[in-house]
From TrEMBL:
Residues 16-26 have a biased composition (Low complexity). It is found in: Nucleus. This is Auxin-responsive protein. It comes from Carex littledalei. Homodimers and heterodimers. The keyword Transcription applies. Its main location: nucleus.
Amino acid sequence: MAGYGDDVDMTELTLAPPGKAGSSSSKGRRRKVEEDAIYVKVSMDGAPYLRKLDLTVYRDYEDLIMSLSDMFRCYSLGGLEGYDECEYAVAYEDGDGDWMLVGDVPWMMFVSSCRRMRIMKGSEARGLGSSD
């Protein structure tokens, strides 16, 4: 088509009766994206709600901690080091059921082993971690 560059993909539009919206191919693509996602629940001590996030959208620990800080509207999340100075620390449960501090293992190992996360008081987090 005139006016379109080589980098533009054309998509097929399929019309369906009400209640049958969307083609099976788009549902297949959506399922593929969901299969690649790694969702974990995140709780924070004192917060009345949980959040669920996809770990695959984050590049590294720093990106994750910044996002958690925005989600829970707290500004003193610890996540990489220095838990003594931080009001909160981020811990995660791995596949073996052990709780560890976020940042203790390489990023990709964390993403593959994390089952859930908890933002806890920094004083409670002192006993966690691989350095103890």
